[in-house]
Amino acid sequence: MSETAAVNVGQAAASRVVKPPRLVPKSLIVGGAIVGMFLALAVIGPYITPYPFDKFHFGSRLAPPSADFWWGTDRYGRDIFSRVIHGTSLTVFMAGTGTIIGVSFGLLIGLFSGYVGGWIDEILMRLTDIAMSFPGLLLAMLVVAALGSNEINAVLSIGIVFTPKVARVVRSATLGLRHIQFVEAAEVRGETNSFIIFREILPNIWPPIIVETCIRLSYAVLLVVALSYLGLGAQPPAPDWGLMIAKERAFLVTGPWVVLAPAAAIVSLIIGVNLLGDGMREWLAARKTADE
Amino acid sequence: MLKYLIRRMVLLAMTLVGISAMIFLIVQILPGDAADQILEAWVESEGGAHDQLRAQLGLDRPWYEQYFGWLWDIMHGDLGRSFAMDAPIAPILVERLGFSLRLAIPALLISVMLSIVLGVIAAIRPNSFVDNAITVITLTGVSVPAFVSGSLFILIFAAWLQWLPSTSSLSEGEGFFHWAYVLAMPVAVLTLESLAHLTRITRSSMIEVLKTPYVRTARLKGLPKRLVIYKHALRNAMLPTVTVIAFNIGWMLGGVVLVEQVFSYPGLGSLVLFSIEQRDTPLLQASMFFVAAGYCVANLLADVGYVLLDPRIRYS
Predict the structure, then answer these.
(1) Residue B35 — very low, low, confident or very high, per pLDDT cuts 50/70/90?
(2) Total structural domains within chain A
(3) Rounded to an integer, what distance in angstroms lies between the CA atom of residue B118 and that of residue A130?
(4) pLDDT at A15 over 60
(5) How far is residue A290 CA from its own chain's centroid?
(6) How remote is the C-alpha of B105 from its chain's centroid?
(7) Which of B151, B157, B295 to mutate to test binding with chain A, by most A CBs within 10 Å of its CB?
(8) Which of A163, B1, B214, B246 could bridge across to A105 with cysteines, CB 3.0–4.6 Å?
(9) Is the pLDDT of residue A197 over 60?
(10) Does some domain include residue A5?
(11) Running DSSP on this structure, what letter comes out for residue A252?
């Protein structure tokens, strides 16, 4: 009796050692919470702000933070709190869309290039080499310069900058599965290329794609705010964070809040996305070792 | 090694041609050509003026003639003439590059040295308080765009403390200390930006190296810990860092745009921005090509340095 109990306890202990509980990393939770908060603000923000983002209050220009204007006002007396909250949807939407465009095209090119191989792969990879010989921000600037400075072209430029980088990551993940048995089995069965690429390979390379998407997202936020800071993204009077810093810089000394508020928003969003990415990478790596 | 070098040089040349084609292609999409831009000032330009100017600038030629003409000129060191400045481009680029390097080189040196120290300290005691503190600092470093940290620096050091100037204009003939005074803030911002990445790489590769048998052997035969870490382990741990340094050179060429903009500094980055604002296509093409070429050369040097430093790697 006591012997079997001891064995049971031993088995329970052994199984606990073999299969540790899958802890979700703290950074994933914190990062997810921050990003989730910004997403929520992006959706409901415009409905909860005390003032419209472009309403002038000429009586209180450059007013310091107060009960009426929580984060103060800018040189036209516009409420900074309302502008920053309104700007959330703009930044989140631009960064998100740019990332989705870059990851989608990069995914298609990477899967195709890695699976088909041969001279097509060679040509596509040389093209990505060329596109990646520009520092990301400069390529984005060049694209926006060619297409014109506005939100949509800034988003497109981010997609163009990201496509070759994502394609590289996806291609090398695809190459790792190229000669694995279940892929070759599908080839022997006579499955079409698109079936093999999307139904056999794609479901097995999600972890690196997810991690890469998180990394891209944080760069996308940086690119969005940088482009609008340089005057190549959203145009006035849009309540864009980068643009607010660029336009209100002259009042940095008399009213530091005009720059500090959008700066705080930018930094906390990027920290959130970075934490999310780090946590995601850690979590997926832990899951992988647990599965093996 | 020689074979490898030759192969890389040929690849570099091909990539440069590809880059020039890509720049030319993108710039061709620009709405309106340079003639429109120049003549904009004279609203009532007479009928023939536009065509005459296009002919004078060579814009009436077919695209392939323009492209190969441009490529031919670049290969002969002729970068063309800027419309907006009405001057040859090459001297402007060289001067601006000099200004940018005065920011980038000190920032690179400082961040490499600091990142080695911080990375090693973090790697010796992983997950300790010091390691976590360094992680938080580096995470903040990658999360703050250069124009945000630049603005904060100006607010603190120029406006409140009044220690440093808020704009960074240089003039020749002034001593080292004046330059250090003027460049302190932009260099610090650039350093912060690249420090984070370098520290993270040094930390993770140092942790890997410290796990290897040869490090344990060195410790077990009684060598002091300090010697093993800084002499035996660091040499191998530095290898991935070399690649990241080259990546950082390229990154700095781009990131420098923001820093130069914040501090109104006349470098390469602000030249690119100027050419975009002025729609100065020859200047835009040339400066973009210049930056991309510099990036490629930096990458090549990093790869060659990697091979030289690590005898285990032999490229075919």
Answers:
(1) low
(2) 1
(3) 34
(4) no
(5) 27
(6) 10
(7) B151
(8) A163
(9) yes
(10) no
(11) T
SS3 call for B100:
helix
Q: Which two tokens stand for residue B261?
A: 């903009």
A–B interface: beta-carbon pairs under 8 A: 119
Which is higher by pLDDT, A278 or A107? A107
Residue A281 forms part of a structural domain: yes
- Please, what are the domains in chain B? 2-85 (no CATH), 90-309 (1.10.3720.10)
Is residue B199 within 8 Å of B115, Cβ to Cβ? yes
Domain interval for residue A45: 23-51+80-235+244-291
Average pLDDT over residues B176-187: 77
User: Mean pLDDT in chain A?
Assistant: 83
pTM attached to this predicted model: 0.83
SS3 B88: strand
In the stretch 37-56 of chain A, residues with CB closer than 8 A to chain B read none
Backbone φ and ψ for A6, nearest 5 degrees, come out as -60, -40
For residue B232, CA distances in Å to B125, B222, B229, B238 come to 17, 13, 6, 11
Identity of residue B280: D
pLDDT (tens digit, 9 = 90+) per residue, A127-170? Answer: 888 888 888 888 898 888 888 888 888 999 999 999 999 999 99
Q: Which two tokens stand for residue A211?
A: 């991690």
pLDDT band at A5 (very low <50, low <70, confident <90, very high): very low
Domain-located, residue A121: yes
Complex ipTM over 0.85: no
Minimal CA separation from B47 to chain A, in Å: 27
CA atoms within 13 A on the CB side of A39: 9
